[in-house]
Amino acid sequence: MADFTNIKVDVLRKFTEDIFIKLGVPEEDAKITVDVLLAANRRGINSHGVARLKRYVGYIKDNKMTPKTELSIIKETPVSILASANNGIGQVAGYKTMNMVINKAKENGLCFATVKESNHYGIAGYYSMMALKYDLLGISLTNSAPLVLPTFGKQAILGTNPLSIAAPTKNERPFVLDMATSTVPRGKLEVYNRMGKQIPDAWATDEKGNPSTDAAKILDNMLNRKGGGLLPLGGAMEEMGSHKGYGLSAMVDILSGVLSGGAFGSIIYSNKQAAGVCHFFGAINPDIFTSKDEFKENMDKFIGIMRDSEKAEGRDKIYIAGEKEFSKEDEQEETVSISNKVVENLKEIGNDVGIEVKF
Amino acid sequence: MADFTNIKVDVLRKFTEDIFIKLGVPEEDAKITVDVLLAANRRGINSHGVARLKRYVGYIKDNKMTPKTELSIIKETPVSILASANNGIGQVAGYKTMNMVINKAKENGLCFATVKESNHYGIAGYYSMMALKYDLLGISLTNSAPLVLPTFGKQAILGTNPLSIAAPTKNERPFVLDMATSTVPRGKLEVYNRMGKQIPDAWATDEKGNPSTDAAKILDNMLNRKGGGLLPLGGAMEEMGSHKGYGLSAMVDILSGVLSGGAFGSIIYSNKQAAGVCHFFGAINPDIFTSKDEFKENMDKFIGIMRDSEKAEGRDKIYIAGEKEFSKEDEQEETVSISNKVVENLKEIGNDVGIEVKF
């Protein structure tokens, strides 16, 4: 593990917040944004953690993302919100919108929101999990940069469009599904590429749209827009359910992009001045259906059924959605493991804006 | 195609309705149930069409399903409904609940419902598509008989738990995603078995939980509860996204079974007197976010992006969710193609209850 450095969460938090503040991000917004990024690192989803800082700083410097997020409510009912992030920070827009969604759901049973003109918001699960402390079900979806092919296509016109749902429990850890609708995210190809390993052929295609195991070539094709891209969950073949992953990705885009009246499909990031990312959030109070208590007890029972069911040969554990991430989060409460390449990037960013740090 | 018989839809409709009526199902309910079954046949999803009649008749005769569906509303708000089907027919419960959901969504912007103590409701897409004629987004989920393994498991404790979302369009056919969260339904194994063909190893496992290509053995294991079962979308390996399909299946069960306070996981069908199937329905009026007109125009644009994107080598068409089913539905407007085995079953059922038919 010489490729990684262990860094105190507090130190990393302060450093990252200071960078955002230097770039004109209000302190409260900097805290929100960094909390979402560090939640990803702590949960072991490093692709969505401080590794993103370089890109975010670039967007702010190039005036593609405004440091002050002016979230405006365009329409609202007792159970819905349409907001625009006005090209501000995705995390700030997401956090503030999800808080409003939670308040309306507490009051009126449920609430759903769409947000347009936003940016990358980090891990989808951060927002769905915000609902948990109020014993609500939380939902969070977002569209994203076009990297994924439709079934039988060779042009990346859909995002990895993740979806997350979080359900409260009584004694168990909450159920937190947080998944990209592609088989894997691009970061996974980068990991295999660094290891010089072939990738499974359900992950991505070459420039002609044929499944390929050559990560280096695929990444180069994607970077230079030569064709090909990531495959939807299910891979390339209908026989394996490719059309289902493709359909799920489209569903996330419809609920985020089309429903908000914002950007969708290949339109996202096509405007050099604004990413146009859109989100969808929801919260449901179990009291309008069963009750909170019964819901949480039955969630424990449901989790027990899955966990205690018989294991396949050679397996000794069945995981529950979110379980691995919660273990990692516990493990990385005080210190997170960050790749040295990212550490170098962070130091460079610090130098650039005049903030020194010792990791 | 000597294995199939072409039957006039009208004849099949009348015959099937008459059977339900003979069994004590009220005429209106018989019409609803048959309409859902025939929609499946017309759309080419024969596993969910009149082939189910034999089982439905069996449930009614064994007093496991009541012919008169007394749908009761347990709780209700302006945007939500909790109902019990009181062990009636799933199609009747689904149709009536979705109509109430649509009315509340027209009035209050959106509405969600859960239904417990129900039965198999046919194709999920029937109910989501009911929202389309009002220019609403429709959502329909259901849990189902435990046939699917969790990732790393060998015991079938989850249903194929389908999810459907339907989105209205302007000039295009609507977007209708209607998918099981397993890689394939059991019916697909039966088809391969009849053809004597090996199945792909992402579909199901043997009794030890190892991926298998032997459909006959797997079907026998499933029937006799020897272990093994269908794999979630993504197959057996996390590398291929198995945990995502498993998570989606669990998500559907949480929203249907746990949220309604009904049965879930391996509890479904475990009570010999009642299946305990649960559904989840939703409708969203685009006017509370963007507008109906803008939504429908942008859906056309989104569909255009997907359809017109570059094709993979050897492919000449990119499909939109629901497109193949709509084509089939058009093709089978007057006549549906039914397997001879099902035709024989239908005739037997007819004989049993004293209804003669000539197909």
- How would you classify the quaternary structure? homodimer
Sheet-strand content of chain A, in percent, reads 15-25%
Order of helices and strands of chain A: EHHHEEHEHEEEHHHEHHEH
Number of helices, counting only DSSP H or I runs of 4 residues or more of chain A: 11
Determine the CATH superfamily of chain A: Malate/L-lactate/L-sulpholactate dehydrogenase, NADPH binding domain
- Residue share in helices of chain A? 25-40%
CATH domain class name of chain A: Alpha Beta
Poorly predicted parts of chain A: none
> Could you tell me the mean pLDDT of chain A?
96
Q: Any idea what the shape of chain A is?
A: globular
Spatial extent as radius of gyration of chain A: 20 Å
Secondary structural class of chain A: alpha+beta
Number of strands of chain A: 9
Number of domains of chain A: 1
Strand order of the largest sheet of chain A: 2-3-4-8-5-6-7
Most extensive chain interface and residues per partner: A-B, 84 and 85 residues
Features:
homodimer, 359 residues, alpha+beta, Ribosomal Protein S8, Chain: A, domain 1, seven-stranded mixed β-sheet, two-stranded antiparallel ribbon, 11 helices, 9 strands, 15% strand, globular
Structure, explained:
Two copies of one chain form a homodimer. Chain A is built from eleven helices and nine strands. Chain A is an alpha+beta fold and 359 residues long. In chain A, a hairpin with a 2-residue loop joins strand 2 and strand 3. The longest helix of chain A has 19 residues. The mean pLDDT of chain A is 96. The interface between A and B is large, with 84 and 85 residues.
